[in-house]
């Protein structure tokens, strides 16, 4: 099984993801990324600018998991032993690492986080120069280099580890630079998931002008994502209704995504947020090529909403890295996923939940409409997802029987439904997703297709 998944390396900390593996990945990443530009020499100053130095630079951060502490130590040890100077920024969101790498011109960024996964898991996300996520080919090259013999630097050739005390404030300043419409008059609840946003989000929203009530903002190393955050929206819903807030924002553990709850307690997911921002960007003239990028998993209602707004949609595979690739290829300004990962290329190279929430809040202020009204332009189609487990997923694309069954289902649904079969990237299963005008029809077709997949690939 490949070490890298759709969003870096992830697994049970200290069993799947060990200190030894973290150290080896750091060494291999240093070799691959530094070798591509071996003569680059620099050092970030307190303002994030770069001064001359003979060694490459990496920026390392982590979320609030206890295991992030020993994994950070291992990553720092691996990088410095490979001759890289490391700037430790502590607990910050994943998009903060991406921004700091781009801002400083560093060679490498490392974020230690398992995002929305439960606390026992952890992960490693890598960013290349410019703050972008690594291409699949570079991840494969890093994996191939793990454990290889190498000549270790000695003396002044080894790297140094420096605590960067200015990183948090530089990131907040970057976030606030996206705010052209103050949030005065808004009352917002933010669920920080006891994660990395706890250190940044409440302060940022207040400094942008909003009245803020923050919940689950006291990480202790063990409580990240524990019945809170973007995967447990009932906590935010309760708080929004109790406080009489205009809306609430829920982040995940590393704050690269944002979901919302409106004043009536309704969920506003990534598709709805993309709909609102796309319409707002179009109205302001900032939606490049009148196009938004979404993944194949966005609800059919999103595509209908964009058609009604006369906005084009380009689709990609699941994963914000693929969304970004398409945006960079075509010069688009906005893209995202149903899960709440949104990318605004004017301000970020990756999904940033706090930037997303700031943009959403500004649309509420500028429009003078409550969030529930803005979100109502998206009429969601019932969606059913069935996971067909323990099947030969690699044969999915070659099965004529499955193709025929999908064609028949699509003909039955017409323009009022959609079928998507997708092999999992990490497990031996096939995901069968069906959208239709009713739950019953979606369930019927999804279950019928699942039986065909099981029969053909099981």
Automatic annotation (TrEMBL):
Q: What class of enzyme is it?
A: isomerase
Q: Which GO terms describe its biological process?
A: carbohydrate metabolic process; peptidoglycan biosynthetic process; UDP-N-acetylglucosamine biosynthetic process
Q: Tell me, what is one Gene Ontology molecular-function annotation carried by this entry? A: phosphoglucosamine mutase activity
Task: Tell me which EC number(s) this protein carries.
Answer: 5.4.2.10
Q: What is this protein called?
A: Phosphoglucosamine mutase
**What does the Swiss-Prot or TrEMBL cofactor note state?**
Binds 1 Mg(2+) ion per subunit.
Organism annotation: Candidatus Planktophila lacus
Q: What's its catalytic activity? A: alpha-D-glucosamine 1-phosphate = D-glucosamine 6-phosphate
Write down which residues bear the modification named Phosphoserine: 115
- Domain of life of the native organism: Bacteria
Q: Which PROSITE patterns match?
A: PGM_PMM
The Alpha-D-phosphohexomutase C-terminal domain, residue ranges: 385-451
The active site lies at: 115
State the post-translational modifications.
Answer: Activated by phosphorylation.
The record's listing under Pfam families reads: PGM_PMM_I, PGM_PMM_II, PGM_PMM_III, PGM_PMM_IV
Domain Alpha-D-phosphohexomutase alpha/beta/alpha residue range list: 3-147, 170-265, 269-378
Kindly list the positions annotated as binding Mg(2+): 115, 252, 254, 256
Query: What CDD domains does the entry give?
Result: GlmM (cd05802)
Q: Does the keyword Magnesium apply?
A: yes
Q: Secreted among the record's keywords?
A: no
Name the cofactor(s): Mg(2+)
Name one cellular component (GO) term: cytosol
User: What UniProt keywords apply to this chain's record, in alphabetical order?
Assistant: Isomerase, Magnesium, Metal-binding, Phosphoprotein
